[in-house]
Automatic annotation (TrEMBL):
<dbReference type="InterPro" id="IPR001849">
    <property type="entry name" value="PH_domain"/>
</dbReference>
<keyword id="KW-0333">Golgi apparatus</keyword>
<dbReference type="InterPro" id="IPR018494">
    <property type="entry name" value="Oxysterol-bd_CS"/>
</dbReference>
<dbReference type="InterPro" id="IPR011993">
    <property type="entry name" value="PH-like_dom_sf"/>
</dbReference>
<comment type="subunit">
    <text>Heterodimer with OSBPL9.</text>
</comment>
<dbReference type="Pfam" id="PF00169">
    <property type="entry name" value="PH"/>
</dbReference>
<dbReference type="GO" id="GO:0006869">
    <property type="term" value="P:lipid transport"/>
</dbReference>
<keyword id="KW-0007">Acetylation</keyword>
<keyword id="KW-0813">Transport</keyword>
<dbReference type="GO" id="GO:0032934">
    <property type="term" value="F:sterol binding"/>
</dbReference>
<keyword id="KW-0597">Phosphoprotein</keyword>
<dbReference type="GO" id="GO:0031902">
    <property type="term" value="C:late endosome membrane"/>
</dbReference>
<dbReference type="InterPro" id="IPR037239">
    <property type="entry name" value="OSBP_sf"/>
</dbReference>
<comment type="similarity">
    <text>Belongs to the OSBP family.</text>
</comment>
<dbReference type="GO" id="GO:0005829">
    <property type="term" value="C:cytosol"/>
</dbReference>
<comment type="function">
    <text>Plays a role in regulating ADIPOQ and FABP4 levels in differentiating adipocytes and is also involved in regulation of adipocyte triglyceride storage. Weakly binds 25-hydroxycholesterol. Interacts with OSBPL9 to function as lipid transfer proteins.</text>
</comment>
<feature type="domain" description="PH">
    <location>
        <begin position="4"/>
        <end position="101"/>
    </location>
</feature>
Length: 699
């Protein structure tokens, strides 16, 4: 082909976290099907610093940016490369893909041995040798023949009869034993030296062998169901053929060097025994607790998630996890490894979306319906930046059912923007007294208080309810969110199913809104967060609506974290405001009068939330509930954090099982079921309505 040309030039190559990116001179040898690189062009006549066989390789443009791409060889080696621009990346990717396809097809036709990194797992070895040694002369095929038995030549496989399932089970048991021996041989290797237990090829072998055994177990399960249907004539009513849980315990393979055995109950730390002895929620008071904002102190925790060390060290765990996932698989019931967790609960993450209370309170200060809708859109788009902690994608704790989180913000009244031409009347003393007892003591205060409460109202499906209010400004927001996670290959997608309602009681307006999807990208390298999808904001009373698009990065080119939107007057279909920019950087608002406003999210003031000290929190409040997991993560003790997390999860499963056996329904504490949603038990609109009725009766 005319395109089968040798190309060469400088590319940046990612080495490791310490060395980072380095310029190297690359040569694509189409005749040999090799990608070689040298320190520089002058050393091209010397031996290459590295060589990749392209037959069977996968060339993938990265979704991190428009310059990066990866070359994944069939041997398991990977080059992460970066061109100077998108055009140069496309040139290299196209030529590499053409060369790869040509040599892969040649192997399919001629079936020559594939030269690649290869090893032999020795079944025997002295006590002083690792039992695994590298034999460069061996081809890759022999490496994967561990535990493989061939039938004698000319012997045909008989048709499987139902009675033979017992023999199959015995053969599978032997295979599982061989697979465990293989894993043990790899994990007994040293962590440093010529061949280590962290070798990328060996990690991939561990992952694929485990995936193979799990798939075989699933198939065997289906055969058993078919056998049962043949004996009974049909499957029992309600029976479904589904995938089994992994037969091979992940916990026993996650830690290199030895199986990870958790100590018996008597050896567990006192904190874990305390977690397991927490009384059943129904035995605690389920009466809603009124939190006094004066007991809350300004939060001093600042757990930014920028540390990738644990992720790098636990790469084998990620490979094990990926080996058991299928595309589109629901991750709701998958227990993820502890080291990828943030140091906060999902309920607290929802609270962090409220970190700009000045913009929230300023919504009701708009003098017209149009201005209030635009202010709400501005607040909405600025909330996601602070909701994320750091640049690296990590997962907050899954709240257990009955878990709650409380906090508040104090906002000086002078810091809340009011329209230049508006003069909002002060509330009368009678209104202040009748609204609630909270306001009575704040009539002369120079700050507004925004109170927040969240509760995990359901475990399966996982549904959270959260509510925030500013009594002084007669505004509140109520929302419920069901998080649905799916495995998408090299990404994880989280759909936020649910709805929120912002109520501006001074104006009698309600704004309904939804939330975008979130994606954790590049989960095998440096994971990062991307938002995607279309959300709508509507106010039925005023006829104004907003449509906002969170754009995921296209395969080629394009910007990260891009968002666009527009605010319309539905009756006339007139666009009154357009917005564009990045949801974590700079937003540009263009109004119908031609004016433009820029909002730099990185320079917005973040108001720290106020939280009660741990000793004053209830046993099911997020920070107290997860305190031992959080402390262990801060100390870098992943094993101890996993132990505490496991105790909490086991406690939740036991209680759920007990409720199912006794047919005891779960009783929520702060939120009530309302159709398909959940509503706070004491929303501000009820309080204000009661206060107005009381005032009318008094008059």
């Amino acid at each position: 082909s005319d395109h089968m040309e040798n190309i060469y030039g400088y590319l940046m190559k990612y080495t490791n976290l310490v060395t980072g990116w380095q310029y190297r001179f690359f040569v694509l040898n189409n005749d040999a099907g090799l990608l070689e690189y040298f320190v520089n062009e002058q050393s091209r006549h010397l031996k290459p610093r590295g060589t990749l066989q392209l037959a069977g390789a996968v060339i993938s443009p990265s979704d991190e940016d428009s310059h990066t791409f990866t070359v994944n060889a069939a041997s398991g080696e990977q080059y992460k490369l970066r061109a100077t621009d998108a055009k140069e990346r496309q040139h290299w990717v196209s030529r590499l893909q053409i060369c790869t396809q040509h040599h892969t097809e040649a192997i399919g036709k001629n079936n020559p041995p594939l030269k690649s990194r290869s090893f032999s797992l020795a079944s025997q070895g002295s006590a002083n040798s690792p039992g695994v040694q590298r034999r460069p002369s061996q081809n890759a095929i022999s490496f994967f023949n561990v535990g493989h038995h061939r039938l004698p030549a000319g012997k045909r496989v008989p048709i499987m009869q139902p009675d033979h399932l017992v023999d199959v089970r015995e053969m599978m048991s032997q295979a599982e034993g061989q697979q465990r021996d293989l894993i043990r041989s790899i994990e007994c290797l040293p962590v440093s030296g010529h061949l280590t237990s962290l070798d990328q090829d060996l990690l991939m072998l561990k992952a694929t062998s485990m995936a193979t055994m799990n798939c075989l177990n699933d198939c065997f399960h289906i055969l058993q169901l078919q056998h049962a249907s043949q004996q009974k004539g049909s499957l029992p009513a309600g029976t479904t053929i589904s995938w089994l849980e992994p037969k091979i315990s992940l916990a026993n393979h996650f830690k290199n060097g030895a199986a990870q055995n958790f100590p018996a109950e008597i050896n567990k730390p006192a904190s874990v025994r305390e977690e397991q002895s927490i009384a059943e929620p129904c035995q605690l008071t389920r009466e809603p607790e009124e939190i006094n904002p004066d007991e809350e102190l300004e939060d001093i925790c600042d757990d930014k998630e920028d540390d990738l060390g644990a992720v790098e060290e636990q790469r084998s765990v990620i490979l094990h996890l990926l080996s058991q996932l299928k595309l589109g698989m629901d991750l709701t019931r998958v227990v993820l490894p502890t080291f990828i967790l943030e140091k906060r609960s999902l309920l607290e993450m929802y609270a962090d979306f409220m970190s700009h209370p000045d913009l929230f309170i300023a919504i009701t200060n708009g003098t017209t319906p149009e201005e209030r809708m635009i202010r709400f859109v501005e607040y909405y788009l600025t909330s996601f930046h602070e909701g994320r902690k750091g640049a690296i994608a990590k997962k907050p704790y899954n709240p257990i059912i009955g878990e709650t989180f409380h906090c508040s913000w104090r906002m000086p009244k002078s810091d809340v923007a009011a329209d230049a031409g508006s003069n909002f009347p002060a509330h009368s003393s009678s209104e202040q007294v009748n609204l609630s007892k909270d306001v009575e003591g704040q009539a002369e205060l120079d700050y507004y208080t925004v109170k927040f409460v969240a509760e995990q109202v359901s475990h399966h499906p996982p549904v959270s309810g959260f509510y925030a209010e500013c009594v002084e400004r007669k505004m509140c927001v109520n929302a419920h969110v069901w998080t649905k996670s799916k495995f998408l290959g090299m990404s994880i997608g989280v759909t936020m199913v649910g709805e929120g309602i912002l109520s501006l009681l001074e104006h009698g307006e309600e704004y309904t809104f939804s939330l975008p999807c979130a994606y954790a990208r590049s989960i095998l390298t440096v994971p990062w967060v991307e938002l995607g999808g279309k959300v709508n904001i509507n106010c039925a009373k005023t006829g104004y609506s907003a449509s906002i698009n969170f754009h995921t990065k296209p395969f080629y080119g394009g910007k990260l974290h891009r968002v666009t939107g527009e605010v319309k007057q539905n009756a006339t279909n007139t666009v009154v405001c357009r917005v564009q920019g990045e949801w974590n950087s700079v937003l540009e608002f263009t109004y119908s009068n031609g004016e433009t406003k820029y909002v730099d999210l990185t320079k917005l003031t973040v108001t720290r939330k106020r939280v009660r000290p741990l000793e004053k929190q209830g046993p099911f409040e997020s920070r107290r509930l997860w305190q031992h997991v959080t402390e262990s993560l801060r100390d870098g003790d992943i094993d101890k954090a996993t132990e505490h997390k496991r105790a909490l999860e086991e406690q939740q499963r036991n209680k759920e099982r007990l409720r199912a056996e006794t047919e005891t329904p779960w009783c929520t504490k702060y939120f009530l079921k309302d159709g398909d949603g959940w509503v706070y038990h004491k929303p501000l609109w009820k309080t204000v309505s009661a206060a107005q009725t009381q005032q009318t009766d008094a008059n």
